[in-house]
Structure formats: structure tokens, C-alpha cells
Design goal:
Length: about 210
């Protein structure tokens, strides 16, 4: 005689740990604010001395004039750098960096990317990132670090002379800074598109569930 099957008992949603702990949600909100201010003020700074044959519409810039834009930019820079350093330190200290963003492999990224392009990539478990997400989030961490380092060269070129030389000079640092900014804006656009496709991810980031 077979034993009676016992139905699985799942804890109520209110007792499950949050998808994102409070410190992740706070860091995400501060990063969003810092990036918005840095990009808008950075576009105004760019307009004062364009690298290429275009400028950004003043309506999407912040600061009103060069000095004002620089003040906004530096304030947001410290917020982004400090918040980013705290985020990375907490990820390392809690082991979250390895649990959420690793392992990562070219084959896994290509597999998940192909599934996403076919509309077959599942989002059943918001606590588990697919490999495309892992790559994107690791990339943006490196990109923000590059923004900060190249920004230091532009801000204090003489004091950070070694960094300036490693980056190929002041003008090259400007191009690196611009490219890193463009990559960050591209990430934000794709990120917002993914949130629109899977809106519950926004709820999880705001409320934790």
C-alpha cells in the first residue's frame, strides 16, 4: 500500500524574504537619481565644448549655463561614486554578487539572448537573473567605474596625471567619458524597455515583493 501523498505547503508571500533587500532598493533609487542628474548636466557641459558635430537640445539639459551644470554634475558624481562603492561593498560582504551575477559564460549568454529574442525567456523567478541580465548588470558596474575614473581626469587633470596618461591624454579621456555615458544611457533605455515588458520587476524593486 503506497503512503498517502502529502501536499506541499508553501509559506505565504508575506513570509518570503524580499526579492531585493532594502539596501539594494535604496541604492537603486539613489543611482537612478544620480544618473539622471549626471546625464542631463553632462549634456549641458558637452554643449559648451562639443566633441562631435551635434549638440543636445537645451530642454533635456540641466544647469542653465556651464557653471551651473558643473555644480550639478559634481554633486551627482559624489552621490554616484559613494553609492556605487557602498553597493559593491555590500554585494561582496553579503555574497550577493556571486549568488546573483555568477556564473556567467559566453554560451549561457548566447542561449539566453536567443531565447529572449524569440520571446521564450521565462521570468518566473524574479530572484534569479538570466545570463543576459547578469552580463548587463556587471557591465554597468564597470561602465560606472569608467565614468568616475575618466571624470576625475577631466576634473583634476594635473592631480590625476597618471590616470590621464593611462587613458591616452585629456582629449582621449573626454572621448572615453562620452562613450561611457552613451553606454550608460543605452543601458537605461533597454532596462526601461524590459521593465515595461515585465512590470512586476518594478514592483519588486520598489516594494521588495
Amino acid at each position: 500500500m503506497s503512503p498517502t501523498a502529502v501536499p506541499a505547503i508553501h509559506p505565504p508571500a508575506s513570509r518570503l524574504p524580499p526579492v531585493h533587500p532594502a539596501w539594494v532598493r535604496m541604492s537603486h533609487a539613489l543611482n537612478a537619481l544620480a544618473v539622471l542628474v549626471m546625464v542631463a548636466s553632462g549634456w549641458r557641459i558637452y554643449n559648451a565644448s562639443p566633441l562631435f558635430r551635434f549638440t543636445f537640445p537645451e530642454a533635456v539639459t540641466l544647469g542653465g549655463w556651464l557653471a551651473g551644470a558643473l555644480q550639478w554634475h559634481f554633486a551627482a558624481m559624489w552621490l554616484l561614486a559613494g553609492n556605487g562603492a557602498a553597493y559593491l561593498a555590500l554585494n561582496l560582504a553579503t555574497g550577493r554578487l556571486f549568488r546573483r551575477f555568477l556564473p556567467l559564460s559566453p554560451r549561457g549568454v548566447l542561449r539566453d539572448l536567443a531565447a529572449a529574442l524569440r520571446g521564450r525567456l521565462g521570468h518566473d523567478d524574479p530572484r534569479r537573473y538570466n545570463q543576459v541580465q547578469r552580463l548587463a548588470y556587471l557591465f554597468v558596474m564597470v561602465d560606472v567605474a569608467l565614468l568616475v575614473v575618466s571624470g576625475l581626469v577631466l576634473w583634476k587633470s594635473v592631480q590625476f596625471g597618471m590616470l590621464r596618461e593611462l587613458m591616452g591624454g585629456y582629449e582621449m579621456a573626454r572621448r572615453v567619458h562620452f562613450a561611457a555615458m552613451a553606454a550608460l544611457v543605452g543601458f537605461v533605455v533597454v532596462h526601461l524597455a524590459m521593465v515595461a515588458l515585465v512590470p512586476r520587476t518594478l514592483r519588486a524593486m520598489v516594494l521588495g515583493r
